[in-house]
Amino acid sequence: MIGREVAARLRRNGRRELLAFPMVGAGAAYRDAGIPTDGPASDLPAEGFSTLGLGRFARDLSAGWLGVQTRQMRFAVRQRGRMDLAIGVGDVVPLVACRLSRAPFLFVACAKSQRGARGHRWNGLETGLMRRSCGVVARDPETAARFQGCGVPVLGWGNPLVELIDRAPSPEPRRKDGRPVVLLLPGSRRDAGRRVEELLDVALLLERRSGDSFDFVLALAPFNDGDALAGLVRAGASIQDEGGSPVRRALLPGGGEVAVRRDGVGAWAARCDVAIGLAGTANEQAAGLGVPLVTWPTDGVFDARYVRMKRPLFGEAQVVVPPRPEAAADAILTILSDPRRREAMSRAGRARMAGGTSLRSLVARAEELLA
């Protein structure tokens, strides 16, 4: 999503020769925006998180990790002399690819933070590679200070995941009776369908406990949402279109209803009262918009180790519960019954996930280098 937004801004500025190299996944976000892609794809089981445990790495290794990495780095080497500028987004893998390309490069250092858990902060090898760049964007002031102390040319800081949120006006999800609105975030990974089923289990339990006093909004990724929709079907939902609207209705067994949206987390999400998030990007965006977040470790990419890694980044903005519908429902009811706590979580989310002008600074620097 970050790479797509950078490419879109460059294209609006008149840059036409753009090429995306998606190093994890098949690049659906780029193709959805009409941006051409190239390079060896990676469809490994850990989906880019093989360093979060020996088990993940072993599965990736047996699925061809070494071959994928070799092909991708060879592709980067073949780009020598073919590009005027490379822009890396993420962690050390695209950072190394940028260096191997020998092109002037910029880097969006969004994968790690000095606020993160120990072992998930930028190390000396990585900052050494960044010193060779033409500019780096850090995701928070602590990380920017760390980079500056290491001689890394910092363009600015800000969480680009929050900065790229489309805040365009959108229909109000809250009904006139003022019922609480619960945001459901299944993410865009290959297990999104299973996550939808878990989220609906919590929604149905809340309905039973409260007597139909909630509104639910299921926010799907604006690309690659097929598995999430399959999860709705497996849960017995009947999906109805709303005549050209970005909103669809999912009628659940027993009479419950969920508004299904595919237009991102945007301005309307800030009107929700609490979010249940089993996602990566969407969790950060919801918290950054001030929506209190409830989550739990899953049996997929976002397992207990991932949640522990991310927990320091969210701070008080997030409540982590055991992976049981009853635990999530209890947490949501507790948050909604305590306005003071809800406001504290909202403030923490905005502060911890603060957006800024990091992408604007990056694009401005790119234009300078391409002039």
CATH C-level name of the largest domain = Alpha Beta
Percentage of residues in strands: 5-15%
**Rough outline:** globular
The N- and C-terminal alpha carbons lie at a distance of 25 Å
Could you tell me the radius of gyration in angstroms?
A: 21 Å
Set out the fold topology.
Blueprint (H helix, E strand, L loop, with lengths): L1 H11 L15 H5 L21 H9 L2 H14 L7 E4 L2 H10 L3 E5 L14 H7 L5 E3 L2 H9 L4 E4 L2 H4 L17 E5 L6 H19 L4 E5 L6 H9 L3 E4 L5 E5 L5 E5 L4 H4 L4 E4 L3 H8 L4 E3 L8 H11 L3 E3 L4 H12 L2 H14 L5 H13 L1
Parallel strand pairs: 1-2, 2-3, 3-4, 5-6, 5-10, 6-9, 10-11, 11-12
Antiparallel strand pairs: 7-8, 8-9
Describe this structure in words.
The chain is an alpha/beta fold. The protein has 2 domains: 2-158 and 356-370, Rossmann fold (3-Layer(aba) Sandwich); 181-352, Rossmann fold, CATH 3.40.50. 43% of the residues lie in helices and 13% in strands. The protein contains 16 helices and 12 strands. The strands form 2 sheets. An 8-stranded mixed β-sheet has the order 7-8-9-6-5-10-11-12, sandwiched between helices. Strands 1-2-3-4 form a 4-stranded parallel β-sheet, sandwiched between helices. Strand 3, helix 7 (141-149) and strand 4 (154-157) form a beta-alpha-beta unit. Helix 9 packs across helix 14 (325-336). The longest helix has 19 residues, at 192-210. It is globular. The two termini are 25 Å apart. The model has no long low-confidence stretch (mean pLDDT 87).
